[in-house]
Amino acid sequence: MPYTFIAKVLIAISLTLLTGCSQSLNSSIEYYQFEQAIKPIQRNSIDTSTQLRINTVTLRGALNNRGIAMKIDNNQINAANYHLWSEAPDQMLTASSHQTLFTALDDWMVVKGLPVITDKDQQSYYELEYELHHFYGDKQGNADIAGLWRLYYTSFEQGRSLQAVHYFSELTPLVENDYEGLVASLEKTWHTINLQVAAQLHTIKRSSKIH
């Protein structure tokens, strides 16, 4: 019976410990990133009714590590030594979230971060915060992303107020039983989460007196 992905990872860890320095000399580092296609799209402020500002995604503990993470036990996470993200995960996830939400929320002006406010109209906006508690593969062969998001609204008259808090947990079976498959599955999971957030934001906006 073929080994599962987690078994391969554990074997790789054992071999690394046994071979010591010679392993580090013979192993090459592989870099990975989300392969999110960029579609030509533009939006003008006069065509939108709401501004959404996406803060940099926060990852719990050591999850914001260049080494791709695997959960190998209930209380143990392992970060790969030779399979690395090409950039810090928080920056990659934020860019991916921005692109997905910009595309899905066609009547919103979606921007990253908190730009300089130049006039009164720009002082009314929504603000989205992500906090991730899971961002790894598990020993059952899934990509696991879980955490929460918070939505704030800021206005010139009322200041900043919390509008909603949503916890989420998504598991996606690996498309392939290797690191490339794990990365692809994590990207698919993150895309699904952001589409769900977009749908919930539409609902919140429709039911709110805030515009």
Automatic annotation (TrEMBL):
Residues 32-198 form the ABC-type transport auxiliary lipoprotein component domain. Residues 1-24 form the signal peptide. The keyword Signal applies. InterPro entries: ABC_trans_aux. SUPFAM superfamilies: XCC0632-like. Keywords: Signal. This is ABC-type transport auxiliary lipoprotein component domain-containing protein. It comes from Pseudoalteromonas porphyrae.
